[in-house]
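Glutamate dehydrogenase: structure tokens wanted.
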Amino acid sequence: MDTMQKIQQDKSSAAKEYVNQVYDEVIKRNPNESEFLQAVKEVFDSLIPVFEKNPKYMENGILERIAEPERMVTFRVPWVDDQGKVQVNRGFRVQFNSSIGPYKGGLRFHASVNASIIKFLGFEQILKNSLTGQPIGGGKGGADFDPKGKSDQEVMRFTQSFMTELCKYIGPDVDVPAGDIGVGAREIGYMFGQYKRIRGGYEAGVLTGKGLGYGGSLARTEATGYGTVYFVEEMLKDKDLSFADSTVVVSGSGNVSIYAIDKASQLGAKVVACSDSNGYIYDKNGINLETVKKLKEVERKRISEYVTVHPQAEYYEGCSGIWSIPCDIALPCATQNEIDKRSAQILVDNGVKAIGEGANMPSTLEAIDLFLENDILFGPAKAANAGGVAVSALEMAQNSMKLAWTFEEVDKRLHGIMKNIYQNSVKAAKEYGYPGNLVVGANIAGFVKVADAMIAQGII
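Answer:
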């Protein structure tokens, strides 16, 4: 072994040892938080070549600092249901990293919400927000409240109680929440009204995802779904492939899924399946998007009702079976860890060409490894689904300037941002010795910008 090889091996050993030591400490500090630990592990492993090349990040303790939130707030949310009974839920807000801008990240209202899920989402948001090129830091929040089955009045009373506490920690230049699962225009509207009432002023930039009549941005509703498809489109182009005449399976039937279906269809694809938390539908003729929109956005019904309108379609209980449908492109847009190793193997065996993650961390680590081992084009969530927060940042910009851009202007900016995310991820992967691996590329491209800002600002 020559001297240069020995030096490189020593660097590699030191970098791996550093990463493993920090990860062990993260485990000790966050026991039983499986989702958070999964997110941290995936990022940490990708960063070893960065520490080999740039020891300054180890010397400045960047991993130790970036894995620990700057602030984590947990609070009680009491509210009164329609029967006059007092209910109590738990609210969360994690303010993870403000090195490149105010904390930015959605609010999730779902029964599964806990500290681990909020922290995994907030940690992912650090690098995702960095990738957009916008001046926004990483944060996330939510509550273990499920809006499904609740009346508008119950949702209003809950969100007003939630904002009464949350308002102490947010502001246009401090922390700017948005929507996520269970939080749409209705919930954002109620929260904005309560914030305005408490603060006694009109601070449009404190929340994004607002209605168009009071500071919202055109194309925000479509942004995450459209952005995911724009990112996958770039991946496909590099392999002389396209959405045109491709068969696509999209999990979920919420905001992200609906507009991923919309944009994929515009680009010539046939989307044959989508789902909700109860089961999935398969329509060999192609999903009728207007029916899905009516069921989920207007009537708030289950996806199973689709077959009553389109009897040629088939409905199946359970969600994982959706990945058994042969497709060229799979867009997991429902929730975390929906594609495990078994589902990933089925997709590979059925000839899938590309995966674009519209949801946050929808593939397990084992599933991701399987996709990469089989040379499947893979767009990781923090890159592929960054369109939502990118347009949220554009909404913040419009609020600051007190103007509104057209749909076409916002969509053009979104398309450009997604192209840049793809190109920067490709460049970073190649620079650090992992050409074509967008998991590594996205993690490194997002991390380096944040790490450099942390070093420039000292030990904070």
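Residues 222-379 form a domain with the Rossmann fold fold (CATH 3.40.50.720). DSSP finds 18 helices and twelve strands in the chain.

Cheers.
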